[in-house]
Amino acid sequence: MFTFALGTGAVLIAPAYQSLVPDMVPRPQVPAAAALSSISVNLARAIGPAIAGLLVARIGVSAVFGLNAATFLLYAIVVAFHPQLGGTPQSPERFLPGLRAGGRYVRHAPVVRRILLRAALFLVPGSALWALLPLIATRQLGLGAGGYGVLLGALGTGAVGGAVVLPQIRARLSASALVAVASLTYAAALVAVALSRSIALTVLMLVPAGVAWISFLSNVNAALQLFLPRWVRARGLSVYQMVLFGAQGAGALIWGVVAGAAGLSPAFLISAAVMAAGAASLWLWPFHQIADMDRSLVRWPEPQLLLSADRGSGLILVRITYTIAAEREQQFLQAMVRLRQSRLRTGAADWALYQDGQNPRLFIELFSVPSWEEHLRQHRERQTGTDLEYRDAAAALSDPPPQTGHYLTADVDR
Q1: Distance (Å, rounded) from C-alpha 312 to C-alpha 372?
Q2: Measured between alpha carbons, how far is residue 220 from residues 31, 122, 176, 246 in Å?
Q3: How far apart are CA 69 and CA 176, in angstroms?
Q4: pLDDT over 70 at 97, yes or no
Q5: How confident is the model at residue 46 (pLDDT cuts 50, 70, 90)?
């Protein structure tokens, strides 16, 4: 039960912790901060067990767990009293509507979906190394627990070294190129580990595998932190955590079954081939250019109503009328594809575009929002500069300018 509670706490902490990074450092330094975070994680993974082992021998297991709990308490105090991070949000969302809003954002954000796809294509084959490395140590190299620790240490050393050199690598390679290089390097390491019968060679090959692992994860993590708006950042990162741990868990199961059926070396070779195929898929599904997108938050003017907003506790319907010349129709329809995703990302529950049957130049955009509070959030805190560009691109094609109406749920006696 307590182990389950530890896992639940880790799931709650990780997205919130990662979402703090863009609030702590300037935006251009977010990739470097993500790499620094990766260094701390891998240093802790390597040094923490060693320190714990020494302390257990001197003060006992219970005291070590108590000391560890105290460090978490200290961390909580630091966060609570930090001038930028302490306190509660100015406009906290209710849990279930906020959860649904986060799910809609991820579902209708092509950039986020592409990043999550790339993560899964790397992590599922990449998990073979972590899952089967104990068997490499015992069966293939004849090592014990100490030897397995050396292999893990080589991976950790490569991860720390990769985080150090990552800024120089990122300065020379695009996001897609970095993912391709990391994937192919990791695939080559999988092949080498599968065929090696030398301890020294295996240790040597695990170092670049650690570099590739941390380079990929830092790149993906930084891309998400740079793209996700503040209001949904933690929720988007929580979905990434699901993919991160889910892909590794599913991959461990898959490669364990493959190794049991085909053997240890074939499992590594198959996972390397899958990893290389994932790298080749970058030709079809490259990373989006996040640097070209305006991710700053924009506050839109709030709609003014004559009816009381209290009546807007139910569904809100927004109707926008466009008058589009015949020669601009195709351009308008293309602009509305991007605008549709923007509406659904920022709070719309559904969306539709209609063309007047009697006046083909008249188009009506309809979308509903679950509540008036949710619609106000669309205007106050959920629109980015990119969303504004999409809206203005569609509006500029209408002559006269588009007209907007808001409709509240009417009470009908039954």
Answers
A1: 5
A2: 9, 11, 10, 16
A3: 41
A4: yes
A5: low
For the residues 211-220, what does the mean pLDDT come to?
A: 88
Q: Which residues pair with 407 in a beta bridge?
A: 317
Peptide bond into 26 cis (omega under 30): no
CATH topology for 10-290 is Growth Hormone; Chain: A; (1.20.1250)
Q: Are 10-290 and 297-408 the same fold in CATH?
A: no
Q: Which of 14, 29, 77 is nearest to 236 (CA)?
A: 14
- Mean pLDDT across 233-259: 91
Identity of the amino acid at 4: F
Domain boundaries, the chain: 10-290, 297-408
One-letter amino acid for residue 86 of the chain? G
Beta strands in 189-309, from DSSP E residues, in sequence order: 297-298
Task: Compute how many other C-beta atoms are within 10 angstroms of the C-beta atom of residue 158.
Answer: 23
> Which of 363, 364, 373, 365 lies closest to 408, judged by CA?
373
Dihedral-angle region of residue 323 (phi above 0 means left; psi in -120 to 50 means alpha; beta otherwise) = beta
Q: What share of the chain is helix, strand, coil (3-state, %, to 5)?
A: 70, 10, 20
**Residues 4, 6, 8, CA angle at the centre, nearest 5°?**
70
Task: Point out which residues pair with 405 in neighbouring strands.
Answer: 319
Read off the pLDDT band of 312 (50, 70, 90).
very low
Q: How far apart are CA 113 and CA 240, in angstroms?
A: 10
CA distance 91 to 73: 27
Task: Indicate if the pLDDT at residue 86 is higher than 70.
Answer: no
Average pLDDT over residues 179-205: 94
Structure tokens at 174: 């695009």
**189, 88 Cβ separation under 8 angstroms:** no
Sign of torsion over alpha carbons 194, 199, 201, 203? positive
- 316 has which bridge partners? 369, 408
Per-position b or e across 303-327, b if 16+ CB within 10 A of its CB: eeeeeeeeebeebbebebbbbbeee
CA triple 131-164-161, angle to 5 deg: 40
pLDDT of residue 313: 62
Q: Report the CATH fold assignment for 297-408.
A: Alpha-Beta Plaits (3.30.70)
64 forms bridges with which residues in the sheet?
A: none
List b or e across 345-358, with b for residues whose CB sees 16 or more CB atoms inside 10 angstroms.
bbbbbebebeeeee
Angle of the 329-346 helix axis to the 385-395 helix axis, nearest 10: 150
Quick check: 102 and 236 in contact, CB under 8 A?
yes
